[in-house]
Amino acid sequence: MYIHHEDIIIRNAVESDSQQLADWWNDGRVMAHAGFPLGLGITPQEIAVSLSTDSDDTRRRLIIEHQKKPIGEMNFRNRGNRTVEIGIKICDPSYQEKGLGRTVLSLLIDELFGRGYARITLDTNLNNTRAQHVYELLGFRKLRVNHDSWTDQLGRLQSSVDYELTADDFHNYAE
Q1: Amino acid 151: pLDDT
Q2: I want to staple 169 with a disulfide (CB 3.0 to 4.6 A). Which of 18, 45, 122, 139 is the partner?
């Protein structure tokens, strides 16, 4: 996948991105909302091997660039039955809360609907109200709240929110 919009590029993550991804994924501040306040403890080599199995038919990790600088990552996973699950992290805090998440999600969602997916799903931590606000602006519908449904690395119970989006409900902020 390669999407270019103004000063934003969304592209497939490749082996040469492994160190950047390791830096982000091993940073507890970046990964805390995903339940990994101590980071993933993964090596660039492990990431490179994992990236080599990506395909548009199964799952794909993506790099978000702003003005040619990597600022975050996205992913999508084919769940079958024309459903795709997505995720996003703006990993560089200096690029958060600037509307970039809404824009890059719009670009990815538009591309995925264009590829024939009928439903897009995602989940987020119940405490991540900033993300929930963005998802709801884009037209995602809250399906359920899963109270105390998983435990983070520090043994704390966490809750999540499940969302879904159809093309009819999509509000594209990249147009």
Answers
A1: 92
A2: 139
